[in-house]
Amino acid sequence: MALRDIPCYGFYFLPYELMCKALTESGQRPGTLAVLMAGRLSGRGHMGPGHAMDVVKARLQLSGAGGRRYEGVLDCVRVSVREEGLRVLFRGLLLNSVRAFPVNAVTFLSYEALMNHLCNTTPIETRAASEH
């Protein structure tokens, strides 16, 4: 769902990059700890809007399959909020946020390791050891 993914990935990668730069000395690549911390915290930026759009996506997928029928994204949002209140879009957000901390940390650690491998640069562990 492009309405969810396009803006949410901006709120996902931008804070990650900014936090990595803040946690890393100038001219150096981020170490393992910086990547884990930045990755862990970067997921918070996209959780709210992303979660709301996931609720809408799930409701649209169930539309007509024994559940309420919606005419589209805006109709789904309008009807859901009117009938259940604004909180319906954020139900389950706390649990997803708790789960997201370790998932985002490992995701970005894997991303950095893969990028290092593909770009043939020094691995994160070696960089981290050489920084000390």
Automatic annotation (TrEMBL):
GO terms under cellular component: mitochondrial membrane
GO MF annotation terms: transmembrane transporter activity
Signal sequence bounds: none
Sorted UniProt keywords: Membrane, Mitochondrion, Repeat, Transmembrane, Transmembrane helix, Transport
Family: Belongs to the mitochondrial carrier (TC 2.A.29) family.
UniProt cross-references to InterPro entries, sorted A to Z: MCP_dom_sf, MCP_transmembrane, Mitochondrial_Carrier
Domain of life per record: Eukaryota
Name used for this protein in its record: Uncharacterized protein
Annotated localization: Mitochondrion membrane
Membrane-protein topology: Multi-pass membrane protein
Solcar repeat positions: 30-117
